[in-house]
Amino acid sequence: MRAHVELIHEDDYIFHAGELPYGEGKILERRLSTDEEDGSSSLSLHATADWGRGAGIPHADTEFYVVEGSLIYGGQELGPGGYVQIPKGAPMDWIRIREGSRVLHWREYGDAGFDPLTTVKETDAEGDVAVVDAEKLEWVAAPTVGPLTPLYIKLLHRDPKTGFYTRLIRAPQGWTDHRLAHHPCYEEFYTLSGRMAYNFGDIDEGTYCFRPAGVKHGHFVAETEIDWIIRSDGELINWYTTDEWVKWGGHAENYPHEHAPVISSLPVRSRSRGEWSGDGM
Questions:
Q1: pTM value?
Q2: CA proximity to 41, closest of 60, 17, 24
Q3: Which Pfam family, giving just one, matches this sequence (predicted)?
Q4: Band of the pLDDT at 248, cuts 50, 70, 90?
Q5: What is the DSSP letter of 227?
Q6: Residue 71, exposed/middle/buried by CB under 10 A (0-12, 13-18, 19+)?
Q7: Nearest-angstrom CA–CA distance, 219 and 246
Q8: What is the phi-psi region of residue 6: left when phi exceeds 0, alpha when psi lies from -120 to 50, beta otherwise?
Q9: How many CB atoms lie within 10 A of CB 35?
């Protein structure tokens, strides 16, 4: 399983050579989080020169999201907000990432393995590849529990069998929630823009988080409009705790005892994100 990462800024990670078999060109990666058991990884790719790879079959559910610059997938060029998802075992077309681009890359339920093809027509393997330009999607208000200003969503991909999803979320300036929440699934985010105050450190552009299922978190205040890309391995249900003390006690607002939050050890985090309420305890 992956470690609990409660706020690390991307700049606090070191660069490695990009682990993208059969690729050509120059690309570096920052390993935001990795599952050492099955190879699942969340990576930030930085193309120091043009980089590309031909068609093939990935060994993991595979996603790309353009933060800066552009990538070309099968002849279609995607700028910031461009997103591609390829299911594990499905043929993916050729891909190019232009020099100077920054691209978030995820591999889920598998490692970096890749079986090259001459073209996608070379194989009988099947699977639906999603190619999305998020800039063309409308923001949709998310349902809220309690008297809160709504968050806004752009859904990029959802697996109809597992409920696994990737989506963009926007909080308007002044959005706040002082309840503690936990979920029955993991929650992972990368901050694309904006700034938020949080009792476990500052959240701003480039800040990354991975929370295993059941880990309690909060409180939040959006100091500016703020955007994230968020992934979760199931339906993200908010179970709220109020009148809490320290990190583990409090009143269960809307969940039964069997869904009580996990008492997490101290997570991996960056001191560059600032002090937080757990320091000194």
A1: 0.89
A2: 60
A3: DUF4437
A4: low
A5: E
A6: buried
A7: 13
A8: beta
A9: 18
User: In terms of residues, how long is the chain?
Assistant: 281
Nearest to 195 by CA among 204, 206, 208, 185: 204
Domains of the chain: 11-135 (2.60.120.10), 137-272 (2.60.120.10)
Tens-digit pLDDT profile for residues 21-64 = 999 999 999 999 999 999 999 999 999 999 999 999 999 999 99
Angle (nearest 5°) at CA 67 between 62 and 71: 60
Give one word for 214, left, alpha or beta, with left for phi > 0 and alpha for psi -120 to 50: left
For the chain, state the CA radius of gyration.
19
Report residue 14 as tokens.
């070191």
